[in-house]
Specification:
It comes from Bacteroides sedimenti. InterPro entries: Aldolase_class_II_sugar_metab, Aldolase_II/adducin_N, Aldolase_II/adducin_N_sf. Keywords: Lyase, Metal-binding. The model has no long low-confidence stretch (mean pLDDT 95). The chain is of the alpha+beta class and 212 residues long. An eight-stranded mixed beta sheet has the order 4-3-2-1-5-8-7-6, sandwiched between helices. Helix 2 runs parallel beside helix 5 and helix 3 crosses helix 6. 37% of the residues lie in helices and 17% in strands. It has a single domain, classed as Class II aldolase/adducin N-terminal domain (L-fuculose-1-phosphate Aldolase, 3-Layer(aba) Sandwich), CATH 3.40.225.
């Protein structure tokens, strides 16, 4: 059973994402795995000032709402990601200023690796999902599929989704994602990216992984 302390933690973290201006009003949604259940922000709720009355508790396996208000219209892909990714406990859909501007560009960048933080934390590759109506089954399916092997994705004319093992990792991915997009836009498109060898070196010498 999800307890009061866990609900308060969820609320505090939602406010932290809002304080960083990762979303405006009701434009974002958040979920957190707690055992076999998930705390999910309610439909139409404002993460920057969400309260207990705007929270839903859902069964991850079935998607059934167990307690609280109706979950976010995007809860299908939140729960889908949690089902497909046992290593993930937090999912955030957000619409930060620069990353959302990039999502609306006609000619979107195919490489976001402008600084070392991007391949190290956001993802060496960031898939771009075509536009689907918010809350639609098509969007839920596309997002869940894209997030099977990625931790961050861009939604065309919509926003972004990131996930992580905890709130801190998710927050880090979201803020560095926004940083990369700010660099891309403020450079006027005249920016450089890390080479494949430079990224391999980061994975070996910074992250301690075997180079791809």
């Amino acid at each position: 059973m999800i307890n009061k302390e866990q609900i308060n933690t969820f609320i505090q973290e939602a406010h932290r994402f809002g304080d960083e201006k990762l979303m405006l009003c009701s434009s974002g949604n958040l979920s957190w795995r707690v055992g076999s259940e998930a705390i999910v922000s309610g439909t139409g709720s404002w993460l920057p000032r969400i309260s207990e009355e705007k929270i839903a508790i859902c069964n991850i396996a079935t998607g059934e709402r167990l307690e609280g208000v109706r979950p976010s219209m995007e809860s299908s892909f939140h729960l889908g990601i949690l089902r497909e990714r046992p290593d993930v406990n937090v999912v955030l859909h957000f619409q930060s200023e620069y990353a959302t501007a990039v999502s609306c560009m006609k000619n979107k960048p195919i490489n976001f690796n402008v600084t070392a933080e991007i391949p190290c934390h956001v993802g060496r590759e960031i898939p771009i999902v075509p536009y689907y109506r918010p809350g639609s089954p098509e969007l839920a399916k596309a997002v869940t599929e894209a997030m099977k092997e990625h931790n961050s994705i861009l939604l065309t004319n919509h926003g972004q989704v990131v996930c992580g093992k905890d709130f801190d990792q998710t927050f880090e991915r979201a803020t560095f994602f926004e940083m990369a997009c700010r660099i891309i836009i403020q450079s006027g498109g005249d920016y450089s990216v890390l080479t494949e060898q430079e990224i391999d070196d980061l994975e070996v010498y910074v992250l301690g992984k075997t180079a791809k």
